[in-house]
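User: I'm putting together notes for a lab meeting next week and I want to include a structural view of one of the chains we've been expressing. I don't have a solved structure, so I'd like a prediction I can at least talk through. The sequence is below, exactly as it appears in our construct file.
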Amino acid sequence: MEKGQGELDKDLIPMKKTKQNEEIDSETRILTAAEKVFAEKGLKGARVKEIAELSGVNPALINYYFGSKDNLYRTVIENFFMRVERLAVSIMEQEIDAKAKLYSLIEFGIDLLGESEYVSRIFVREFVDSGPYSELIIKRHLRRIFATAQQLVPPVKGQDKLTESQVMHFIFSAIGAMSMFYISGPVIKDIWKRDVFTKKMIEERKREVINLIFNGIGDQFDLE
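Assistant: Thanks for the context. Below is the predicted structure for the 224-residue chain, given as structure tokens.
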């Protein structure tokens, strides 16, 4: 007679947790805790002890893995943009047209922003406070992201070539439509009673941003 799922589960041998797995778990917990603390207090206001307590590790372990609070902060930033750039490269290498690539970038970009309620707030703090890594973010990451985005800006009817102003306004409008929704998460939760980080709201936001970018908000309403 075949065994039921419960009986099969009993036969499974638990995987032994190796030291390497434990180290990965600790680093992940530290980075997750660091995102929250850096988003709420910024680099200057954050304390290693608080990050350690939130992640359930000894403060010395943070120094062991990352060397310093500044390096931990930089790692959080670099990890995010490395994912963005890998994503952009993988999409740009696909054999699809520019419109399809732009669709994919918007969808995957919103997925990334929706993964954590803290990442976008870290970048707002960094730029508003003219933090030590704002220039690094612009030079190392944002310029490359903008260069990629410029290749995908859709043409305007009756116009052979877009002006630089049109291209830049389009890119900033698209980024704003994607990111401000998540930066404003606490406000939206208070006013609209919606959690923007749920899967349902992330999918809903994708549809709305794509519709806004490709059709324009005015086309959704009868303004006559």
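A couple of points you could mention at the meeting. The domain at 74-220 is CATH 1.10.357 (Tetracycline Repressor; domain 2). Residues 1-17 have pLDDT under 50 and may be disordered.

User: Perfect, that's what I needed.
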